[in-house]
Amino acid sequence: MTWLGAVDDATLIRHYAEARGVVFVPSDEDYGYITLEAMLSARPVITVSDAGGPLEFITDGAEGLITAPDAQALGAAFERLSGDVDAAERMGQAGQARYNAQNISWDHVVETLSGQTHAPVLPDAAPPQAVEPAPAPAAETALGILRDTIAPLEALADLPFANIEEVLEAYAFDELPAALGRPEPPIDAGLAGYLGTHWTRFMSTLRQLEGLEITSALDVGVFPPLVFQALLANQFKGIEMHGLWEGPDPYRQSVKSRSGKHPGFDITLKVANGERDPWPYPDNSFDLVTGMEILEHLALDPYFFYTEAARVLKPGGHILITTPNVVSHRGVWKSLNAVAPYSFGIFVPSGGVYGRHNREYAPQELATIGTAAGFETVRLQTLDVYDRHIEPEMAQILLARGDDLTMRGENIQYLARKAGAPKGVPENLYHGDPTRMHGNLSVTGREEATGLTRLSVTNTSPSYWPTAGECATCMLTEWINEAGELRHQHLMQPLNGPLAPSESSQITLRLDPASETAAGSLRLHLYQSGVGVFSGRGRAAPLTLPCSEAAFLRMVDTTPLPQGAP
Protein backbone atom coordinates (compact mmCIF):
# COMPACT_ATOMS: atom_id res chain seq x y z
CA MET A 1 0.00 0.00 0.00
CA THR A 2 1.19 3.53 -0.84
CA TRP A 3 -0.12 6.55 1.09
CA LEU A 4 -0.43 9.37 -1.45
CA GLY A 5 -1.70 12.12 0.81
CA ALA A 6 -3.51 14.98 -0.92
CA VAL A 7 -3.77 14.61 -4.71
CA ASP A 8 -5.13 16.83 -7.48
CA ASP A 9 -8.46 16.16 -9.19
CA ALA A 10 -6.93 14.54 -12.27
CA THR A 11 -4.95 12.06 -10.14
CA LEU A 12 -8.02 11.25 -8.04
CA ILE A 13 -10.13 10.57 -11.13
CA ARG A 14 -7.40 8.35 -12.58
CA HIS A 15 -7.20 6.26 -9.40
CA TYR A 16 -10.98 5.80 -9.34
CA ALA A 17 -10.88 4.70 -13.00
CA GLU A 18 -8.06 2.17 -12.39
CA ALA A 19 -9.51 0.66 -9.20
CA ARG A 20 -11.22 -2.73 -9.02
CA GLY A 21 -13.30 -1.32 -6.15
CA VAL A 22 -13.34 1.47 -3.57
CA VAL A 23 -13.00 0.83 0.18
CA PHE A 24 -14.83 3.27 2.48
CA VAL A 25 -15.10 2.15 6.11
CA PRO A 26 -16.17 5.10 8.31
CA SER A 27 -18.06 4.75 11.56
CA ASP A 28 -21.54 6.33 11.56
CA GLU A 29 -20.72 8.69 8.67
CA ASP A 30 -23.45 11.30 8.08
CA TYR A 31 -23.19 11.21 4.23
CA GLY A 32 -19.89 10.34 2.57
CA TYR A 33 -18.96 11.74 -0.84
CA ILE A 34 -16.51 8.89 -1.39
CA THR A 35 -19.45 6.53 -1.87
CA LEU A 36 -20.99 8.79 -4.53
CA GLU A 37 -17.66 9.36 -6.29
CA ALA A 38 -17.15 5.60 -6.53
CA MET A 39 -20.69 5.04 -7.86
CA LEU A 40 -20.26 7.83 -10.42
CA SER A 41 -17.01 6.11 -11.51
CA ALA A 42 -18.86 2.75 -11.87
CA ARG A 43 -16.75 1.15 -9.13
CA PRO A 44 -18.21 -1.13 -6.43
CA VAL A 45 -17.91 0.03 -2.81
CA ILE A 46 -16.71 -2.10 0.09
CA THR A 47 -18.06 -0.69 3.34
CA VAL A 48 -19.01 -1.89 6.82
CA SER A 49 -22.27 -2.50 8.64
CA ASP A 50 -21.83 0.48 11.01
CA ALA A 51 -20.73 2.94 8.28
CA GLY A 52 -23.88 5.08 8.49
CA GLY A 53 -24.35 7.23 5.36
CA PRO A 54 -22.88 4.79 2.78
CA LEU A 55 -25.55 2.23 3.74
CA GLU A 56 -28.19 4.55 2.23
CA PHE A 57 -26.65 3.92 -1.22
CA ILE A 58 -25.01 0.46 -1.07
CA THR A 59 -26.87 -2.85 -0.87
CA ASP A 60 -24.75 -5.89 -0.15
CA GLY A 61 -24.08 -7.76 -3.40
CA ALA A 62 -25.77 -5.10 -5.56
CA GLU A 63 -23.69 -1.89 -5.66
CA GLY A 64 -20.88 -3.31 -3.53
CA LEU A 65 -20.20 -5.38 -0.43
CA ILE A 66 -21.14 -4.69 3.20
CA THR A 67 -19.12 -6.58 5.81
CA ALA A 68 -18.73 -6.75 9.56
CA PRO A 69 -16.34 -4.02 10.84
CA ASP A 70 -13.37 -6.32 11.45
CA ALA A 71 -10.18 -7.19 9.59
CA GLN A 72 -11.09 -10.79 8.73
CA ALA A 73 -14.44 -9.87 7.15
CA LEU A 74 -12.89 -7.01 5.22
CA GLY A 75 -10.09 -9.26 3.97
CA ALA A 76 -12.64 -11.76 2.67
CA ALA A 77 -14.44 -8.95 0.82
CA PHE A 78 -11.16 -7.76 -0.72
CA GLU A 79 -10.42 -11.28 -1.95
CA ARG A 80 -13.92 -11.74 -3.37
CA LEU A 81 -13.78 -8.52 -5.35
CA SER A 82 -10.21 -9.13 -6.52
CA GLY A 83 -10.99 -12.61 -7.74
CA ASP A 84 -14.28 -11.96 -9.57
CA VAL A 85 -13.84 -9.31 -12.25
CA ASP A 86 -17.31 -9.88 -13.74
CA ALA A 87 -19.03 -9.42 -10.37
CA ALA A 88 -17.03 -6.24 -9.72
CA GLU A 89 -18.06 -4.85 -13.10
CA ARG A 90 -21.73 -5.73 -12.54
CA MET A 91 -21.75 -4.07 -9.12
CA GLY A 92 -20.00 -0.99 -10.48
CA GLN A 93 -22.52 -0.61 -13.31
CA ALA A 94 -25.41 -1.13 -10.86
CA GLY A 95 -23.94 1.57 -8.61
CA GLN A 96 -23.63 4.03 -11.48
CA ALA A 97 -27.23 3.31 -12.53
CA ARG A 98 -28.44 3.88 -8.97
CA TYR A 99 -26.50 7.14 -8.71
CA ASN A 100 -28.11 8.38 -11.94
CA ALA A 101 -31.55 7.30 -10.77
CA GLN A 102 -31.15 9.27 -7.51
CA ASN A 103 -30.79 12.53 -9.50
CA ILE A 104 -28.40 14.03 -6.93
CA SER A 105 -26.02 15.93 -9.22
CA TRP A 106 -24.90 19.40 -8.16
CA ASP A 107 -26.80 20.88 -11.11
CA HIS A 108 -30.02 19.39 -9.78
CA VAL A 109 -29.26 20.50 -6.21
CA VAL A 110 -28.59 24.10 -7.33
CA GLU A 111 -31.73 24.08 -9.48
CA THR A 112 -33.84 22.79 -6.57
CA LEU A 113 -32.47 25.32 -4.08
CA SER A 114 -32.38 28.37 -6.34
CA GLY A 115 -35.03 27.63 -8.94
CA GLN A 116 -32.47 28.42 -11.67
CA THR A 117 -30.73 26.01 -14.01
CA HIS A 118 -27.02 25.84 -14.68
CA ALA A 119 -26.07 27.13 -18.13
CA PRO A 120 -23.23 25.44 -20.02
CA VAL A 121 -19.98 27.43 -20.19
CA LEU A 122 -19.29 28.22 -23.84
CA PRO A 123 -16.28 30.00 -25.42
CA ASP A 124 -16.59 33.77 -25.83
CA ALA A 125 -17.47 34.54 -29.43
CA ALA A 126 -19.15 37.53 -31.03
CA PRO A 127 -22.04 36.43 -33.24
CA PRO A 128 -21.59 37.48 -36.87
CA GLN A 129 -25.08 38.97 -36.87
CA ALA A 130 -27.61 39.69 -34.18
CA VAL A 131 -30.50 37.27 -34.47
CA GLU A 132 -33.64 37.54 -32.43
CA PRO A 133 -33.93 34.19 -30.60
CA ALA A 134 -37.20 32.33 -30.56
CA PRO A 135 -38.98 32.73 -27.24
CA ALA A 136 -38.03 29.79 -25.05
CA PRO A 137 -40.85 27.95 -23.29
CA ALA A 138 -40.83 27.89 -19.51
CA ALA A 139 -38.41 25.31 -18.14
CA GLU A 140 -41.04 23.16 -16.46
CA THR A 141 -43.27 23.24 -19.54
CA ALA A 142 -40.43 22.21 -21.85
CA LEU A 143 -39.29 19.54 -19.42
CA GLY A 144 -42.77 18.01 -19.23
CA ILE A 145 -43.21 17.99 -23.01
CA LEU A 146 -39.86 16.30 -23.69
CA ARG A 147 -40.25 13.82 -20.83
CA ASP A 148 -43.70 12.74 -22.05
CA THR A 149 -42.52 12.45 -25.67
CA ILE A 150 -39.72 10.01 -24.92
CA ALA A 151 -41.28 8.20 -21.96
CA PRO A 152 -40.67 4.42 -22.05
CA LEU A 153 -43.42 2.14 -23.27
CA GLU A 154 -45.40 0.37 -20.57
CA ALA A 155 -45.13 -3.35 -19.95
CA LEU A 156 -47.55 -5.72 -21.64
CA ALA A 157 -50.66 -6.14 -19.53
CA ASP A 158 -50.67 -9.94 -19.78
CA LEU A 159 -46.96 -10.48 -19.01
CA PRO A 160 -46.80 -12.57 -15.80
CA PHE A 161 -43.80 -10.69 -14.33
CA ALA A 162 -43.63 -7.32 -12.62
CA ASN A 163 -39.84 -7.08 -12.29
CA ILE A 164 -36.58 -8.89 -12.97
CA GLU A 165 -36.58 -10.63 -9.59
CA GLU A 166 -39.80 -12.44 -10.50
CA VAL A 167 -38.25 -13.70 -13.76
CA LEU A 168 -35.13 -14.93 -11.94
CA GLU A 169 -37.31 -16.70 -9.37
CA ALA A 170 -39.52 -18.29 -12.06
CA TYR A 171 -36.76 -19.98 -14.07
CA ALA A 172 -33.70 -22.11 -13.36
CA PHE A 173 -31.26 -20.28 -15.62
CA ASP A 174 -28.32 -22.30 -14.23
CA GLU A 175 -28.58 -26.04 -14.97
CA LEU A 176 -25.51 -27.00 -12.92
CA PRO A 177 -27.12 -27.24 -9.44
CA ALA A 178 -29.75 -29.70 -10.72
CA ALA A 179 -27.07 -31.73 -12.53
CA LEU A 180 -25.13 -31.97 -9.26
CA GLY A 181 -28.25 -32.79 -7.24
CA ARG A 182 -27.82 -29.69 -5.12
CA PRO A 183 -30.35 -27.02 -4.12
CA GLU A 184 -30.17 -23.80 -6.08
CA PRO A 185 -28.33 -20.93 -4.41
CA PRO A 186 -30.17 -17.69 -3.60
CA ILE A 187 -30.57 -15.22 -6.45
CA ASP A 188 -27.40 -13.20 -6.85
CA ALA A 189 -28.25 -9.67 -5.76
CA GLY A 190 -25.55 -8.17 -7.96
CA LEU A 191 -26.85 -9.94 -11.06
CA ALA A 192 -30.44 -8.98 -10.23
CA GLY A 193 -29.34 -5.37 -9.77
CA TYR A 194 -27.49 -5.31 -13.09
CA LEU A 195 -30.36 -6.91 -15.03
CA GLY A 196 -32.81 -4.66 -13.22
CA THR A 197 -31.23 -1.62 -14.87
CA HIS A 198 -32.35 -3.11 -18.22
CA TRP A 199 -35.89 -4.04 -17.15
CA THR A 200 -37.57 -0.96 -18.63
CA ARG A 201 -35.72 -1.52 -21.94
CA PHE A 202 -36.84 -5.17 -21.97
CA MET A 203 -40.44 -4.07 -21.52
CA SER A 204 -40.25 -1.41 -24.24
CA THR A 205 -38.63 -3.90 -26.61
CA LEU A 206 -41.39 -6.45 -26.05
CA ARG A 207 -44.00 -3.78 -26.76
CA GLN A 208 -42.40 -3.18 -30.16
CA LEU A 209 -43.29 -6.79 -31.06
CA GLU A 210 -46.92 -6.52 -30.01
CA GLY A 211 -49.28 -7.79 -32.71
CA LEU A 212 -46.63 -9.70 -34.71
CA GLU A 213 -46.93 -13.42 -35.50
CA ILE A 214 -43.61 -14.91 -34.38
CA THR A 215 -42.90 -18.64 -34.29
CA SER A 216 -39.08 -18.53 -34.64
CA ALA A 217 -36.52 -15.97 -33.49
CA LEU A 218 -32.77 -15.43 -33.67
CA ASP A 219 -31.05 -13.18 -31.11
CA VAL A 220 -27.62 -11.97 -32.29
CA GLY A 221 -25.11 -11.12 -29.57
CA VAL A 222 -27.02 -12.95 -26.84
CA PHE A 223 -25.32 -14.42 -23.77
CA PRO A 224 -26.50 -16.10 -20.54
CA PRO A 225 -28.52 -15.66 -18.43
CA LEU A 226 -31.20 -15.87 -21.13
CA VAL A 227 -33.68 -13.54 -19.46
CA PHE A 228 -35.10 -11.91 -22.58
CA GLN A 229 -35.68 -15.35 -24.10
CA ALA A 230 -37.77 -16.24 -21.05
CA LEU A 231 -39.85 -13.13 -21.66
CA LEU A 232 -40.28 -14.05 -25.33
CA ALA A 233 -41.36 -17.57 -24.37
CA ASN A 234 -44.16 -16.08 -22.28
CA GLN A 235 -45.26 -13.60 -24.95
CA PHE A 236 -45.14 -16.01 -27.93
CA LYS A 237 -46.18 -19.47 -26.80
CA GLY A 238 -44.27 -22.29 -28.50
CA ILE A 239 -41.68 -19.98 -30.06
CA GLU A 240 -38.53 -21.67 -31.40
CA MET A 241 -35.46 -19.74 -30.27
CA HIS A 242 -31.89 -19.55 -31.52
CA GLY A 243 -28.89 -17.41 -30.68
CA LEU A 244 -25.61 -16.27 -32.21
CA TRP A 245 -22.56 -15.42 -30.12
CA GLU A 246 -18.76 -15.33 -30.43
CA GLY A 247 -18.30 -18.42 -28.32
CA PRO A 248 -15.69 -19.84 -28.68
CA ASP A 249 -17.93 -22.93 -28.41
CA PRO A 250 -21.59 -23.55 -29.23
CA TYR A 251 -23.77 -23.30 -26.14
CA ARG A 252 -26.95 -25.24 -25.52
CA GLN A 253 -29.35 -24.79 -22.64
CA SER A 254 -32.72 -26.16 -21.61
CA VAL A 255 -34.30 -23.54 -19.36
CA LYS A 256 -36.98 -24.96 -17.04
CA SER A 257 -39.74 -23.25 -15.10
CA ARG A 258 -39.24 -23.88 -11.39
CA SER A 259 -42.95 -24.11 -10.68
CA GLY A 260 -44.20 -25.46 -13.99
CA LYS A 261 -46.44 -22.40 -14.36
CA HIS A 262 -44.33 -20.84 -17.11
CA PRO A 263 -43.24 -22.26 -20.48
CA GLY A 264 -39.72 -23.69 -20.57
CA PHE A 265 -37.57 -23.46 -23.68
CA ASP A 266 -34.52 -24.93 -25.39
CA ILE A 267 -31.95 -22.78 -27.18
CA THR A 268 -28.62 -23.30 -28.93
CA LEU A 269 -26.18 -20.45 -29.41
CA LYS A 270 -24.08 -21.00 -32.53
CA VAL A 271 -20.66 -19.41 -33.01
CA ALA A 272 -19.99 -16.60 -35.50
CA ASN A 273 -18.76 -13.02 -35.58
CA GLY A 274 -21.99 -11.27 -36.51
CA GLU A 275 -20.38 -8.54 -38.65
CA ARG A 276 -17.80 -10.69 -40.45
CA ASP A 277 -18.73 -14.39 -40.65
CA PRO A 278 -21.66 -15.78 -42.67
CA TRP A 279 -24.34 -16.64 -40.14
CA PRO A 280 -24.68 -20.45 -39.83
CA TYR A 281 -28.36 -20.60 -40.82
CA PRO A 282 -30.14 -21.21 -44.15
CA ASP A 283 -31.95 -18.47 -46.04
CA ASN A 284 -35.53 -17.65 -44.97
CA SER A 285 -35.26 -19.34 -41.54
CA PHE A 286 -36.75 -16.92 -38.98
CA ASP A 287 -39.72 -14.65 -38.35
CA LEU A 288 -37.65 -12.33 -36.15
CA VAL A 289 -34.01 -11.28 -35.77
CA THR A 290 -33.09 -9.18 -32.74
CA GLY A 291 -29.89 -7.22 -32.14
CA MET A 292 -30.26 -5.62 -28.72
CA GLU A 293 -27.46 -3.31 -27.55
CA ILE A 294 -25.06 -4.95 -30.05
CA LEU A 295 -24.84 -2.55 -33.03
CA GLU A 296 -22.77 -0.03 -31.05
CA HIS A 297 -20.13 -2.71 -30.41
CA LEU A 298 -19.53 -3.46 -34.09
CA ALA A 299 -16.14 -2.32 -35.38
CA LEU A 300 -16.07 -3.31 -39.05
CA ASP A 301 -19.28 -3.62 -41.01
CA PRO A 302 -22.83 -2.93 -39.76
CA TYR A 303 -24.19 -3.31 -43.32
CA PHE A 304 -23.03 -6.95 -43.33
CA PHE A 305 -24.93 -7.45 -40.06
CA TYR A 306 -28.12 -6.09 -41.67
CA THR A 307 -27.75 -8.08 -44.91
CA GLU A 308 -27.17 -11.36 -43.08
CA ALA A 309 -30.25 -10.62 -40.97
CA ALA A 310 -32.22 -10.04 -44.19
CA ARG A 311 -30.91 -13.28 -45.67
CA VAL A 312 -31.95 -15.50 -42.76
CA LEU A 313 -35.33 -13.80 -42.31
CA LYS A 314 -38.41 -15.19 -44.01
CA PRO A 315 -40.09 -12.87 -46.56
CA GLY A 316 -41.97 -10.28 -44.51
CA GLY A 317 -39.98 -11.17 -41.38
CA HIS A 318 -38.87 -8.46 -38.96
CA ILE A 319 -35.62 -7.13 -37.54
CA LEU A 320 -35.62 -5.33 -34.19
CA ILE A 321 -32.54 -3.33 -33.15
CA THR A 322 -32.04 -1.36 -29.95
CA THR A 323 -28.94 0.79 -29.48
CA PRO A 324 -27.84 4.00 -27.68
CA ASN A 325 -28.74 7.31 -29.34
CA VAL A 326 -25.63 9.46 -29.71
CA VAL A 327 -27.78 12.56 -30.44
CA SER A 328 -30.11 12.13 -27.47
CA HIS A 329 -30.92 15.11 -25.27
CA ARG A 330 -28.25 13.81 -22.91
CA GLY A 331 -25.69 13.44 -25.72
CA VAL A 332 -26.34 17.02 -26.86
CA TRP A 333 -26.02 18.23 -23.27
CA LYS A 334 -22.69 16.47 -22.91
CA SER A 335 -21.41 17.98 -26.17
CA LEU A 336 -22.37 21.49 -25.10
CA ASN A 337 -20.42 20.93 -21.90
CA ALA A 338 -17.33 19.62 -23.73
CA VAL A 339 -17.94 15.97 -22.75
CA ALA A 340 -17.91 13.12 -25.27
CA PRO A 341 -21.56 12.32 -26.10
CA TYR A 342 -21.25 8.52 -25.93
CA SER A 343 -23.51 6.79 -23.43
CA PHE A 344 -20.67 4.34 -22.66
CA GLY A 345 -17.30 5.67 -23.73
CA ILE A 346 -14.94 3.84 -21.42
CA PHE A 347 -12.49 1.17 -22.58
CA VAL A 348 -12.88 -2.39 -21.28
CA PRO A 349 -9.56 -4.09 -22.06
CA SER A 350 -10.76 -7.49 -20.83
CA GLY A 351 -13.51 -7.43 -23.48
CA GLY A 352 -11.23 -6.90 -26.47
CA VAL A 353 -12.38 -4.71 -29.36
CA TYR A 354 -16.03 -5.63 -28.69
CA GLY A 355 -15.85 -4.77 -24.98
CA ARG A 356 -16.43 -1.08 -25.72
CA HIS A 357 -18.83 0.96 -27.82
CA ASN A 358 -17.00 1.40 -31.11
CA ARG A 359 -19.62 3.70 -32.64
CA GLU A 360 -22.95 5.01 -31.41
CA TYR A 361 -25.62 5.98 -33.93
CA ALA A 362 -28.16 8.68 -34.71
CA PRO A 363 -31.69 7.29 -35.22
CA GLN A 364 -31.99 7.90 -38.96
CA GLU A 365 -28.74 6.04 -39.58
CA LEU A 366 -30.40 2.78 -38.54
CA ALA A 367 -33.18 3.34 -41.06
CA THR A 368 -30.68 4.35 -43.77
CA ILE A 369 -28.67 1.16 -43.40
CA GLY A 370 -31.89 -0.86 -43.19
CA THR A 371 -33.27 0.58 -46.44
CA ALA A 372 -29.97 -0.16 -48.20
CA ALA A 373 -30.13 -3.76 -46.92
CA GLY A 374 -33.65 -4.31 -48.23
CA PHE A 375 -35.74 -3.45 -45.16
CA GLU A 376 -38.82 -1.27 -44.87
CA THR A 377 -39.08 0.75 -41.65
CA VAL A 378 -42.10 -0.15 -39.52
CA ARG A 379 -41.24 1.97 -36.48
CA LEU A 380 -38.33 4.18 -35.49
CA GLN A 381 -38.51 5.82 -32.09
CA THR A 382 -36.30 6.78 -29.17
CA LEU A 383 -37.08 6.33 -25.49
CA ASP A 384 -35.51 7.10 -22.13
CA VAL A 385 -35.31 3.56 -20.75
CA TYR A 386 -32.45 3.85 -18.23
CA ASP A 387 -32.38 7.36 -16.78
CA ARG A 388 -35.43 9.67 -16.79
CA HIS A 389 -33.48 12.77 -15.74
CA ILE A 390 -33.52 15.64 -18.27
CA GLU A 391 -31.72 18.95 -17.86
CA PRO A 392 -34.54 21.59 -18.01
CA GLU A 393 -32.56 24.07 -20.12
CA MET A 394 -31.76 21.27 -22.60
CA ALA A 395 -35.49 20.70 -23.00
CA GLN A 396 -35.95 24.45 -23.55
CA ILE A 397 -33.24 24.55 -26.23
CA LEU A 398 -34.63 21.57 -28.16
CA LEU A 399 -38.19 22.85 -27.98
CA ALA A 400 -37.19 26.37 -29.08
CA ARG A 401 -35.33 24.88 -32.06
CA GLY A 402 -38.46 23.08 -33.19
CA ASP A 403 -36.67 19.72 -32.94
CA ASP A 404 -38.37 16.40 -33.57
CA LEU A 405 -38.39 15.45 -29.90
CA THR A 406 -39.30 11.85 -30.69
CA MET A 407 -35.69 11.41 -31.86
CA ARG A 408 -34.06 12.75 -28.67
CA GLY A 409 -34.51 9.80 -26.27
CA GLU A 410 -31.49 7.88 -24.99
CA ASN A 411 -32.26 4.52 -26.64
CA ILE A 412 -33.13 3.93 -30.32
CA GLN A 413 -35.65 1.20 -31.07
CA TYR A 414 -35.90 0.28 -34.76
CA LEU A 415 -38.37 -2.25 -36.14
CA ALA A 416 -38.31 -3.06 -39.86
CA ARG A 417 -39.78 -5.60 -42.28
CA LYS A 418 -37.87 -7.56 -44.92
CA ALA A 419 -39.16 -6.08 -48.16
CA GLY A 420 -36.63 -6.68 -50.95
CA ALA A 421 -33.05 -7.40 -51.97
CA PRO A 422 -30.05 -5.45 -50.62
CA LYS A 423 -29.19 -2.37 -52.70
CA GLY A 424 -25.55 -1.82 -51.68
CA VAL A 425 -23.78 0.06 -48.90
CA PRO A 426 -25.19 3.50 -48.04
CA GLU A 427 -23.23 6.42 -49.44
CA ASN A 428 -20.79 8.10 -47.04
CA LEU A 429 -20.94 5.29 -44.46
CA TYR A 430 -17.73 3.52 -45.53
CA HIS A 431 -14.25 4.17 -46.79
CA GLY A 432 -14.32 1.90 -49.84
CA ASP A 433 -16.77 -0.90 -50.58
CA PRO A 434 -16.72 -3.66 -47.94
CA THR A 435 -19.10 -5.90 -49.92
CA ARG A 436 -16.26 -6.60 -52.39
CA MET A 437 -13.58 -7.27 -49.78
CA HIS A 438 -14.01 -11.06 -49.60
CA GLY A 439 -11.55 -13.28 -51.46
CA ASN A 440 -9.13 -16.18 -51.39
CA LEU A 441 -5.52 -16.69 -52.48
CA SER A 442 -4.05 -20.20 -52.85
CA VAL A 443 -1.12 -21.98 -54.53
CA THR A 444 -2.21 -24.40 -57.25
CA GLY A 445 1.20 -25.50 -58.63
CA ARG A 446 4.94 -24.90 -58.69
CA GLU A 447 7.77 -25.86 -61.06
CA GLU A 448 10.76 -26.67 -58.87
CA ALA A 449 13.30 -26.20 -61.67
CA THR A 450 12.18 -22.71 -62.71
CA GLY A 451 10.39 -21.37 -59.61
CA LEU A 452 7.26 -20.62 -61.64
CA THR A 453 4.43 -20.58 -59.09
CA ARG A 454 0.77 -20.70 -60.10
CA LEU A 455 -1.79 -19.02 -57.85
CA SER A 456 -5.57 -19.02 -57.84
CA VAL A 457 -7.39 -15.80 -56.94
CA THR A 458 -11.08 -16.35 -56.11
CA ASN A 459 -13.78 -13.72 -55.65
CA THR A 460 -15.83 -14.97 -52.68
CA SER A 461 -17.83 -11.74 -52.38
CA PRO A 462 -21.39 -11.20 -53.69
CA SER A 463 -20.19 -8.40 -56.03
CA TYR A 464 -18.07 -8.04 -59.17
CA TRP A 465 -14.43 -7.12 -58.68
CA PRO A 466 -13.45 -4.24 -60.97
CA THR A 467 -9.79 -4.21 -62.00
CA ALA A 468 -9.62 -0.52 -62.92
CA GLY A 469 -10.92 2.73 -61.50
CA GLU A 470 -12.28 3.41 -58.03
CA CYS A 471 -12.08 0.53 -55.49
CA ALA A 472 -10.41 -1.81 -58.00
CA THR A 473 -9.24 -5.16 -56.69
CA CYS A 474 -5.48 -5.57 -57.00
CA MET A 475 -2.64 -7.02 -54.91
CA LEU A 476 -0.19 -5.66 -52.35
CA THR A 477 3.15 -7.51 -52.38
CA GLU A 478 5.59 -7.31 -49.47
CA TRP A 479 9.09 -8.68 -49.04
CA ILE A 480 10.32 -9.62 -45.54
CA ASN A 481 14.00 -10.41 -44.90
CA GLU A 482 15.40 -13.29 -42.82
CA ALA A 483 15.35 -11.12 -39.67
CA GLY A 484 11.58 -10.73 -40.07
CA GLU A 485 11.83 -7.07 -41.12
CA LEU A 486 9.52 -5.68 -43.80
CA ARG A 487 11.77 -4.14 -46.47
CA HIS A 488 9.70 -3.60 -49.63
CA GLN A 489 6.03 -3.01 -50.56
CA HIS A 490 4.55 -2.82 -54.05
CA LEU A 491 1.04 -2.60 -55.52
CA MET A 492 0.42 -4.53 -58.72
CA GLN A 493 -2.49 -5.65 -60.89
CA PRO A 494 -2.18 -9.37 -61.72
CA LEU A 495 -5.81 -9.82 -62.88
CA ASN A 496 -6.59 -9.61 -66.58
CA GLY A 497 -10.15 -8.37 -66.15
CA PRO A 498 -13.15 -8.05 -63.81
CA LEU A 499 -13.94 -11.13 -61.73
CA ALA A 500 -17.52 -12.26 -61.08
CA PRO A 501 -18.69 -13.63 -57.72
CA SER A 502 -17.38 -17.21 -57.17
CA GLU A 503 -15.13 -16.87 -60.24
CA SER A 504 -11.37 -17.59 -60.08
CA SER A 505 -8.43 -16.28 -62.06
CA GLN A 506 -5.03 -17.91 -62.44
CA ILE A 507 -1.81 -15.88 -62.15
CA THR A 508 1.83 -16.95 -62.43
CA LEU A 509 4.79 -15.55 -60.50
CA ARG A 510 8.43 -16.43 -61.05
CA LEU A 511 10.02 -17.03 -57.65
CA ASP A 512 13.22 -18.89 -56.71
CA PRO A 513 13.96 -22.32 -58.25
CA ALA A 514 14.50 -25.17 -55.80
CA SER A 515 18.24 -25.10 -56.45
CA GLU A 516 18.56 -21.58 -55.02
CA THR A 517 18.17 -20.52 -51.40
CA ALA A 518 15.18 -18.23 -50.84
CA ALA A 519 16.41 -16.04 -47.99
CA GLY A 520 13.30 -14.13 -47.05
CA SER A 521 9.60 -14.36 -47.81
CA LEU A 522 6.92 -12.90 -50.07
CA ARG A 523 3.59 -11.89 -48.52
CA LEU A 524 0.59 -11.29 -50.80
CA HIS A 525 -2.55 -9.38 -49.81
CA LEU A 526 -5.71 -8.82 -51.82
CA TYR A 527 -6.12 -5.05 -51.86
CA GLN A 528 -8.84 -2.52 -52.71
CA SER A 529 -7.29 0.36 -54.58
CA GLY A 530 -7.35 3.57 -52.59
CA VAL A 531 -8.73 1.76 -49.54
CA GLY A 532 -6.50 -1.00 -48.11
CA VAL A 533 -5.94 -4.71 -47.64
CA PHE A 534 -8.81 -7.18 -47.51
CA SER A 535 -7.25 -8.81 -44.44
CA GLY A 536 -8.23 -5.76 -42.36
CA ARG A 537 -11.84 -6.65 -43.18
CA GLY A 538 -11.20 -10.16 -41.83
CA ARG A 539 -12.45 -11.99 -44.93
CA ALA A 540 -9.25 -12.69 -46.93
CA ALA A 541 -6.11 -14.10 -45.33
CA PRO A 542 -2.72 -13.08 -46.79
CA LEU A 543 -0.54 -15.71 -48.46
CA THR A 544 3.16 -16.11 -47.54
CA LEU A 545 5.76 -17.89 -49.74
CA PRO A 546 9.57 -18.31 -49.60
CA CYS A 547 11.21 -15.64 -51.76
CA SER A 548 14.62 -14.01 -52.12
CA GLU A 549 15.02 -10.26 -52.52
CA ALA A 550 16.32 -10.74 -56.05
CA ALA A 551 13.24 -12.74 -57.04
CA PHE A 552 10.95 -10.12 -55.47
CA LEU A 553 12.65 -7.26 -57.34
CA ARG A 554 12.49 -9.21 -60.61
CA MET A 555 8.79 -9.92 -60.08
CA VAL A 556 7.71 -6.35 -59.32
CA ASP A 557 9.83 -4.98 -62.16
CA THR A 558 7.80 -6.95 -64.70
CA THR A 559 4.23 -6.77 -63.33
CA PRO A 560 1.83 -3.89 -64.16
CA LEU A 561 0.68 -1.36 -61.62
CA PRO A 562 -3.06 -0.96 -60.99
CA GLN A 563 -4.60 2.08 -62.66
CA GLY A 564 -4.34 5.09 -60.39
CA ALA A 565 -1.46 3.63 -58.31
CA PRO A 566 1.44 5.99 -57.55
Give the topology, please.
Layout: H1 9-18, E1 22-23, H2 33-40, E2 45-48, E3 64-67, H3 71-83, H4 85-102, H5 106-114, H6 139-149, H7 164-170, E4 171-172, H8 176-180, H9 189-196, H10 199-208, E5 216-220, H11 227-235, E6 240-245, E7 251-257, E8 265-271, E9 286-292, H12 302-312, E10 313-324, H13 329-336, H14 363-372, E11 375-383, H15 392-401, E12 411-418, E13 439-446, E14 452-459, E15 473-480, E16 486-492, E17 504-510, E18 521-528, E19 532-533, E20 543-546, H16 549-557
Parallel strand pairs: 1-2, 2-3, 5-6, 5-9, 6-8, 9-10
Antiparallel strand pairs: 4-7, 7-8, 10-12, 11-12, 13-14, 14-17, 15-16, 15-18, 18-19, 18-20
Briefly summarize what is shown.
With 566 residues, the protein is α/β, with parallel strands linked by helices. It has 16 helices and 20 strands.
Would you mind describing this structure in some detail?
The chain is an alpha/beta fold and 566 residues long. The chain is built from 16 helices and 20 strands. It has helices at 9-18, 33-40, 71-83, 85-102, 106-114, 139-149, 164-170, 176-180, 189-196, 199-208, 227-235, 302-312, 329-336, 363-372, 392-401, 549-557; strands at residues 22-23, 45-48, 64-67, 171-172, 216-220, 240-245, 251-257, 265-271, 286-292, 313-324, 375-383, 411-418, 439-446, 452-459, 473-480, 486-492, 504-510, 521-528, 532-533, 543-546. The strands form 4 sheets. The chain has a 9-stranded mixed sheet with strand order 4-7-8-6-5-9-10-12-11, with helices on both faces. Strand 7 and strand 8 form a beta hairpin. The longest helix is centred in the first third of the chain and has 18 residues, at 85-102. It is globular and about 85 Å long.
